[in-house]
Amino acid sequence: MSSSSSTNYSQYRGEETCKCGRRAVMRTSLTVKNPERRFLGCINYKKHNDCNFFVWVDPETCPRGLEYARRMQAIKDELERQVEELKMMNEGLKRGKEMVEEENDALVVKLADLTEMNINLIASNEALQAQIEGRKKFGKSFFLGENHSSGSPIVCCLCDWCACVKPLP
Ligand SMILES: [Zn+2]
């Protein structure tokens, strides 16, 4: 663009014909060097069959305008950098979330196991509690429970031949 930037913009008469014979197209440059500066170019500008016709329509951007464009570009670059950072952070958070969910699933399974274990312990604690209560009532003879129909206690005297002996839960 440096070779053609010397072209006098005042030559523009409202319509220009390309080197390729077609009508030139007006576009706006948004580069930091030529911000918001209109130019005429080939209809195939920057494509493989560009005839390389190029002429500025607007005068060169003033120094203040150039400084403003530089600052805007710096802000844009910084914002794009921050967007990239946030994208990476978001990816990290997604991975963290997946890990936490996996851990949670494992803990749910563990909790179910512990709940079952707890239910069993409560049952065996109740059985032991009943043994203690039975011992209080019936002395040294071994309380094994209550007869479901009669409600009378089933006790074992702990003799070697006693048929009522059964293993503790
Ligand atoms: Zn052309």
From TrEMBL:
Coiled coil: 69-131
Annotated keywords: Coiled coil, Metal-binding, Zinc, Zinc-finger
GO molecular function: zinc ion binding
One matching Pfam family: Zn_ribbon_GRF
Keyword Zinc: yes
Superkingdom, natural source: Eukaryota
Domain GRF-type as annotated: residue spans: 18-60
Protein name as catalogued: GRF-type domain-containing protein
